[in-house]
Amino acid sequence: MPQISCFVVNLASAHERRAAMEALLSRHGIEPTWFDAVDGRILSDDSLARVFDAARAQVAYGPMSRGEIGTSLSHLEIFRKMDEQGIPCAVILEDDVLLAEDFRSLLDTGGPNSLAKVFASQEPVMVQLTHVARGYRTGAITLGSRQIVRPHGGVWLTSGYFLTLAAARNLLRAMYPVWMVADHWRYFEREGLLRLYALTPNAVWESYLSQASDIAPERRARRKDKKTFVDRLRRVVDTTLVRPLLVRDLPHFRG
User: Fold this and answer.
1) pLDDT in tens, 164-177
2) Cis peptide before 177 (omega within 30 of 0)
């Protein structure tokens, strides 16, 4: 059965991760497209200046490490491939994850559990496949034994996600040269680049290999913006009304 395109981001030097992912995907019957990740740590200063907007990053996010820049470039280059090849949707995985037993069914385009049947390519959508802590109770889309829900609160990680072509094009147009980390999904939604969803129970989670991240040792803490009165009021409303009435905790599946 045809599958949704599945890209796996892997540094050329990360041989253990490549071998582990090859074995995992083979067990699941998934034929991936391997993408050689950009190693921002070895980019020359001239190359970095061409692909990174440091001034804009400083204002919008704060200082970014070379590892973060490389990761962002890697995902943007996959979006470029989707754009150039007209790929209607894709699942993008990093090379340090594990997958639920039914993961293959999410990729089978003709199957009843396929992510591709839920969203059209012209809808700018991202579905987080890793765990999201909370989601809204209403509006859930049933997908076999799982649901697709609107997440509540922060949505981070690029470990595993589904993306439509429209979302890929929006992100590519807005985020290159790089000026924001690749996993600031809530920011991208606020900017109107995509609409966020989460799969629950999650079908992807990080493996033991993620503990030795290629970028975590140099990832910098995000600058905290000063909270306004409106921000504080929204937080009170969210804590006292929205969460108790409209939001539920989502299960955290780890295999």
Assistant:
1) 999 999 999 999 99
2) yes
SS3 at position 248? strand
Strands 247-249 and 134-136: antiparallel
* Residues with Cβ within 8 Å of residue 251, at least 6 apart in sequence: 200, 201, 202
Q: Provide the CATH number for the domain formed by 5-249 in this structure.
A: 3.90.550
Is 86 strand, coil or helix?
coil
In the chain, the largest separation of any two C-alpha atoms, in whole Å, equals: 54
186 CB burial (10 A radius; 0-12, 13-18, 19+): middle
Which tokens belong to 94? 């990093």
The one-character DSSP state at 198 is E
Residue 19 sits at the vertex; the CA angle it makes with 14 and 20, to the nearest 5 degrees, is: 100
As given in the structure block, the two tokens for residue 247 are 């939001």
Position of tokens 């030795």?
212
The full 3-state SS of 101-158, as one line of letters, equals CCHHHHHECCCCCCHHHCCCCCCCEEEECCCCCEEECCCCEEECCEEEECEECCCCCC
pTM more than 0.85: yes
For the chain, the domains span: 5-249
